[in-house]
């Protein structure tokens, strides 16, 4: 199947390359005269006032951006945040919050690992293990199967 798929891919790839080469040649195949391009007339000027070619630098932060600016330490309160701030400032605040979030996740992971070690040592002190727990569960299942088998045999003897 892979061989057929590979052959189909190579065939389509070569077919596309062949099509690109033939489309780039002229119809006769030997014409070297450059094609003349007609110049389009420039578009008419709009009737309304022209817009400036620049934009006032700034970005109005969303409520989440404002919280990130405060969490990153750029501003002390939301009252101090201006209506427009530079995109670089928002980007720097987001990056700082992202790094802080990563540090928090690292700390939580290390704390969870330490908790698992403590809980595992307590279980070992009580002589509990997964192996013992699994063996007890399987023994219980065997007992239940044996009781069901005895009950089935007793019912079949009564029926006779």
From TrEMBL:
<feature type="region of interest" description="Disordered">
    <location>
        <begin position="32"/>
        <end position="53"/>
    </location>
</feature>
<keyword id="KW-0812">Transmembrane</keyword>
<comment type="similarity">
    <text>Belongs to the UPF0389 family.</text>
</comment>
<dbReference type="GO" id="GO:0016020">
    <property type="term" value="C:membrane"/>
</dbReference>
<dbReference type="InterPro" id="IPR009432">
    <property type="entry name" value="DUF1075"/>
</dbReference>
<dbReference type="Pfam" id="PF06388">
    <property type="entry name" value="DUF1075"/>
</dbReference>
<keyword id="KW-1133">Transmembrane helix</keyword>
<dbReference type="GO" id="GO:0051402">
    <property type="term" value="P:neuron apoptotic process"/>
</dbReference>
<protein>
    <submittedName>
        <fullName>Family with sequence similarity 162 member A</fullName>
    </submittedName>
</protein>
<feature type="transmembrane region" description="Helical">
    <location>
        <begin position="101"/>
        <end position="120"/>
    </location>
</feature>
<dbReference type="GO" id="GO:0005739">
    <property type="term" value="C:mitochondrion"/>
</dbReference>
<dbReference type="GO" id="GO:0071456">
    <property type="term" value="P:cellular response to hypoxia"/>
</dbReference>
<dbReference type="GO" id="GO:0090200">
    <property type="term" value="P:positive regulation of release of cytochrome c from mitochondria"/>
</dbReference>
<keyword id="KW-0472">Membrane</keyword>
């Amino acid at each position: 199947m892979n061989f057929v798929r590979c052959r189909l891919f190579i065939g389509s790839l070569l077919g596309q390359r062949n099509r690109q080469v033939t489309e780039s040649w002229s119809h006769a195949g030997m014409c070297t005269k450059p094609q003349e391009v007609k110049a389009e007339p420039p578009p008419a000027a709009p009737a309304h006032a022209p817009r400036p070619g620049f934009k006032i630098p700034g970005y109005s932060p969303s409520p989440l951006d404002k919280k990130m600016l405060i969490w990153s330490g750029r501003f002390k309160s939301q009252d101090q945040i201006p209506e427009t701030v530079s995109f670089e400032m928002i980007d720097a605040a987001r990056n700082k919050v992202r790094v802080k979030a990563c540090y928090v996740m690292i700390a939580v992971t290390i704390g969870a690992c330490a908790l698992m070690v403590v809980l595992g040592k307590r279980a070992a002190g009580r002589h509990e293990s997964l192996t013992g727990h699994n063996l007890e569960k399987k023994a219980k299942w065997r007992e239940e199967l044996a009781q069901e088998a005895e009950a089935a045999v007793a019912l079949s003897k009564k029926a006779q």
